[in-house]
Structure formats: C-alpha cells, structure tokens
Design goal:
Number of helices: 20
Distance between the termini: 22 Å
Number of domains: 4
C-alpha cells in the first residue's frame, strides 16, 4: 500500500484563513499559535522549521511561548512559506498574492460575471460530464494561462476575473483528479481558494472547500475531509444562503464522518443535506456546479454503505441511476458501480451481473481514470464470487472492457500512483 503524502502546509493554511483563532493569532503576531495550529493538522515540526528556515529548537520555543517572533524577515518567511496574506501580518502584499484587494465583505451584490468567462466554464463543465476530465484538463489550463491569467494583473479587470480564475482553477483540479493525478488536483484547489476569497465571493470559496473535502476523503484522510467541510460551512454561513451549496457541504461532512465510523454524527449531517436539497430553489450561483437530488442520492448511497445500511443504500443508488440524464456519462457510470457493488455485498449475484452488464455498456470512450480505478475495485469484489458461472462470464467482459479503456487512456494514466509532481 502506498504511503499517504504528508499534508501540504499551504493547503492546510488555506483552510484556516477563515478560522477566527488563526486570524486573531496573526493580528497579534502570535506565530507560536499559528505553528501549533499547523502542527495539530498534521504538518510536522520538522517541515514547519525547514519552511521558515529556523531550527526545531527555536520552533519549540515559539510554540511553547518561551519566545516570540520579532524579526521582520522571519514574519516574511512565514507568510511566504505558508501563503498567509501579507495584510494579516501587517506586511506589504506578497509577490505571490493577486493584485486585487477587494474586501471579502463585498460578497453580496457582485457585478454579473463576464459572459465569455461564464460561457467557457459552462462549455468545459458540459464536456467534462460527457467525456471525462482527462481529455479536457490541458484545454482548461491553457484557457487559464492564455485568457484569464493576463487579466489578473490588470487593475481595471475588477473582482470578477478572480472569481473566473477560481472557478476554472477548481475545475482544473477536478479534471486532474479525474485523470488520477491527485497531488496536482490538491495544488489546483489550494490555488483556487485564495482566488475565490480575493474575489469576495464567499459561496465560491465554500464550493472550493467542498472540493478539497472530497479530495481529502478520496486520499483516505477523513479528518481533513471533515475539517474542509466545516471550513466550507463557515464560509457559506457568511454569504448569501444557497441551499444546494450547504447541502453539498453537509454531504461531504457526512461522507467523511461515515468513513471514520462516526455513525450518529454522519447520519445527522446527511439529514441536514436532505433538508437543504428539499429547500433548494431553481436559482443557481453562476460559478458553482449544481448539487441536485441526483447528486445527493449518489453520495447518500456511499454514506449508507459505510453505515452498513445496505437496503437504504441500494434504494438511493438506484434512484441516482434513474435521475441521471444521458449527458452525465461519468455520473451514471459511478452510480451503476455503486449499484453493482451493493448487490455483490448483499450476495444478490444475478442482480449484480445484470447491473454490471448495464454498467459495461456505458460510455466505453469515457476519459476518466477515476472510473477505471473504481471498475478495478468492483472487479475485485466480484472476483470473490467467481465460482458462480454468470459472475465468471461477467468478469471476462470486465477484462475485455478494461483492455479497451486502457488503450484509450494510455496517455492519461499517471506514471506513479497519487498523481504527478510536475
């Protein structure tokens, strides 16, 4: 089994930028508290000391309160190492910070997004749903580089260009994740959050936090997934009420808690998500991908599986399949994978085989490494029942389908598990 990558301190810090304790510590220039908060979230003291270019002994003195950071150069090193915005520490704007200084309290009554930017987001989002993110990642990154990034340094562009950059950077993160490059995805999400915050669009920042929660869960870090979901809910509470957004965040929190075997709080979080989806209106935030009844059903099935409530999980998974329209090839495939897996776990082998045949007939050209990985996990589950002839025949189809998919995805499969470091 591959060792889990250590948490990126900048990603951790991005999730802390809405934490009142962190903001208070920065305003008081109490770096010992900042270091302790990073350390409590998995950043080793050795990594903190190295990043700030101090000895571990000196770091322990700061963390214990024996001494305080006094030198300007050390504050600058801390800000740059962990991407703490300069104004939080009384410093000039750092070189890596966007030039916009739009205050976050301007989250209401934003000017409408640029039509070209919004059209690009919708175009990429629609194509991604049908073909998978692997084939689109490069196009999104080029669009960011060529069409959006130059406007970030144009003082006349306004805050909306930062929102567009955040939305497209978050989308690039999802496409990297769909390509099996989770380290790269993490970096995109880490960049998207400060862009969203700079734009003053708190719902968008909360949306990015939800994506970071999903990624942390996929990487096996349920504690970080819960923390990201809570960060997102805190951000969402400061902006206009968007039930679909809070439903997504409660769902991510429920998934992380269920994965950590925290059954009662997971069930409560799922109930909150269900109430929010029921109360959601047709109005949508322009930069946020929708979270609807189909998405909730799909996620609920996974949560209920972790809670060992397979009857209810199967109902939700089948509902997700029914609700998914033809244009959502990847979502349909993932929901069918869940259906097959539940039938297999319940030893309903004929039903599992029937659903598996439907699954293998969906979008064989889908450019999603994530789907291939989940198909491999499903095959291993079915392999436990290969003594049953229909299952054995189905496994042959799985192998044929996998060979075909791997030929199509040969240029997308990362060279090492967990993503590229390029």
């Amino acid at each position: 089994m591959n060792q889990k990558s250590p948490p990126d301190p900048r990603v951790i810090m991005a999730g802390l930028l809405s934490d009142e304790r962190l903001l208070r510590a920065c305003s008081e220039r109490d770096m010992g508290t900042v270091f302790r908060m990073l350390n409590c979230r998995g950043v080793s003291t050795r990594r903190i000391a190295t990043a700030v270019d101090i000895t571990q002994g000196r770091l322990y003195d700061y963390m214990s309160g024996k001494s305080r950071v006094e030198k300007l150069t050390v504050f600058e090193q801390i800000a740059d190492a962990f991407h703490i915005p300069g104004h939080l520490l009384g410093l000039a704007r750092r070189s890596w910070e966007p030039t916009s200084t739009a205050p976050e309290h301007q989250h209401a009554d934003h000017p409408p997004p640029d039509g070209d930017d919004l059209a690009a987001v919708e175009h990429f989002r629609s194509a991604d749903r049908q073909t998978g993110g692997g084939r689109l990642y490069g196009a999104v990154v080029r669009h960011l580089s060529d069409r959006v990034a130059p406007r970030l340094v144009d003082t006349g562009s306004g805050a909306q260009v930062f929102a567009a950059a955040a939305a497209l950077t978050e989308m690039a993160g999802w496409m990297a994740h769909d390509s099996g490059q989770d380290t790269l995805a993490e970096r995109h999400f880490a960049r998207a959050l400060p862009l969203a915050r700079t734009s003053g669009d708190l719902p968008l920042a909360a949306h990015v936090a939800a994506s970071s929660s999903h990624l942390a869960l996929q990487r096996g870090d349920s504690a970080a997934a819960v923390q990201w979901a809570r960060t997102g809910l805190d951000l969402a509470a400061q902006g206009p009420r968007i039930p679909a957004l809070t439903a997504r965040l409660h769902t991510m929190k429920a998934r992380a808690l269920a994965a950590a075997a925290q059954h009662t709080p997971a069930a409560r979080a799922l109930e909150k998500a269900q109430r929010d989806v029921e109360g959601a209106s047709d109005a949508a935030h322009p930069w946020l991908s929708p979270f609807d009844a189909a998405a909730l059903a799909s996620e609920s099935a996974l949560i209920l599986c972790d809670l060992e409530r397979l009857d209810l999980a199967l109902t939700e998974a089948e509902q997700a399949v029914v609700l998914r329209e033809a244009g959502r090839a990847r979502s349909l495939a993932l929901s069918l994978i869940t259906v097959v897996g539940i039938h297999a776990r319940r030893k309903e082998l004929d039903a599992a085989v029937h659903a598996a045949h439907a699954l293998l007939g969906t979008s064989p050209t889908l450019g999603s490494v994530r789907v291939v990985q989940q198909l491999d996990e499903l095959r291993r589950l079915l392999e436990l029942h290969k003594g049953y002839p229909p299952v054995r025949e189905c496994l042959v189809r799985f192998d044929d389908a996998r060979r075909a998919r791997m030929l199509l995805l040969a240029d997308l499969i990362p060279s090492s598990p967990g993503g590229t470091t390029a």
